[in-house]
Amino acid sequence: MKRNPLILFFVAAIVVAMLSAGIRIARNNRTNRSTHELMGNLAPDFDLQTLDGKNLKLSGLRGKAVLLNFWATYCGPCKIEMPWFVELQNEYGPQGFQIVGVAMDDATTEDIAKFAKEMGVNYPILLGTESVGQSYGGVNALPTTFFVDRDGKIIAREFGLQSRSVFVDHIKRALSQGQSVQAQK
Amino acid sequence: MKILLASALVLLSAWASAQDEVGPQGPAVKMAPAPVVTAIQGKPATVPLSFRVTRGYHINSNQPKSEFLIPTVLKVEATTDIVIGKTTYPGGQDMSFAFAPDEKLNVYTGDFKVDVLVRPLHSVQPGKYIVRGTLKYQACDNSACYPPKQLPVSFDVKIAKAPPPPRSNPAQSPHAH
Fold it and tell me: What does the pLDDT look like over B45-101, one tens digit per residue?
């Protein structure tokens, strides 16, 4: 039986399209699963150096609601969020809220410190490492922000620039959740 | 034969799909196949390298407007036979984006071209030589930025023999008697 080359080509094209789609879906699932699995679980703990040479351990903030913001000096959208974070730290800090910035940067500590100073940052900036980034799902897009409740559990995450109101909603939720809140009531 | 052809097509497409990957894995800048430039021994020649930024993304130009931004830089590996000269970058476009409407960034979008000057040594043997390097870039879209990437770059330079120098004839010298 003689096969029509056009049909063969058509079949090959369909196979190609399916394979391509499969590869894409598999890769996306791999990324989403790793970040999705973090939701509702304890935020991976870390002990990172701050800009002034001290160390900060995430689990040391247990009892507070934490906004964990992965950012970089080269990231324009990150720069938009920072003034909001300064305001939010002032507004919600007295209620037991703490913002922690993690710089995922190739820049020097001096450059990161200079940038943070220019932005008027009033919360600790930590020097991120690849392993910490991996433990939070890879952090391929910046900004990436996680919201941690008073028990240390991740209750929300956002990729890319979001509106200020999205942050406020998550912060309020993080402040109101956890055993620590129940104990206070 | 047809099965082989179809299999090759499938593999090629899967490879292309991996190259195309954008989004969480990071936006892609692709390099178009570079033309084979012929250079004569000892003479400079320009190699034009063409790149394309995936739609929806931008990368910083070679001269971004802030010290904190990462410029696009082509690094060409030194070779023993060919001297790598100046790299000429295009001027970027001044653009503002949704995340900072009041600020203009100097960026590359779509297609852009980088010229590399090469000069084969006088002593180099004629033939085809491969030159390799990397294009370092850092890309963003309208709401997020992605870590800096290094795109492998390679191009061929065909080196041709220099024409023989004109022969001097002492017998024709006006001072010869």
Answer: 999 999 999 999 999 999 998 889 999 999 999 889 999 999 999 999 999 887 777
Write the DSSP string, B130-151: EEEEEEEE-EE-SS-B---EEE
Partner-chain residue, chosen from A5, A23, A77, that has the shortest CB–CB distance to B145: A77
DSSP label of B91: P
| Min distance A21 CA to chain B CA atoms (Å) | 9
The residue among A137, A138, A128 whose CA lies nearest residue A48 is A128
Partners of residue A105 on adjacent β-strands: none
The residue in chain A having the minimum alpha-carbon distance to the alpha carbon of residue B102 is: A80
Interface with chain A: mutation pick from B2, B7, B68, B140, highest number of A CBs within 10 Å: B68
Instruction: Let me know if residue B15 belongs to a domain.
Output: no
Domain membership of residue B55 (yes or no) is: yes
Q: CA A115 to CA A21: how far, in whole Å? A: 41
Domain of B119, in residue numbers: 26-160
Taking the CA of residue A102 and the nearest CA in chain B, the distance in Å comes to: 14
User: Any idea which of A4-18, B4-18, B139-153 has the lowest mean pLDDT?
Assistant: B4-18
Model pLDDT for residues A37-49, shown as the tens digit of each residue: 888 899 999 999 9
CA atoms of A92 and A98, how far apart (whole Å): 8
How far apart CA A148 and CA A150 sit, in angstroms, is 7
Mean pLDDT computed over A89-118: 96
Place of tokens 């991740």: A154
Contact call for B144 and A161, based on CB within 8 A? yes
Out of A77-81, B11-15, B41-45, B48-52, least confident range = B11-15
ipTM over 0.85 threshold: no
Q: Is residue B70 part of a domain?
A: yes
Q: Which residues in chain A touch residue B25, judged by CB atoms under 8 angstroms apart?
A: 27, 31, 140
Domain harbouring B68, CATH code: 2.60.40.10
B173 found inside a domain: no
| Domain count across chain B | 1
Q: How many angstroms separate the CA atoms of B116 and B140, rounded?
A: 26
Per-residue model confidence (pLDDT) at position A72: 97
* Predicted structure pTM score: 0.78
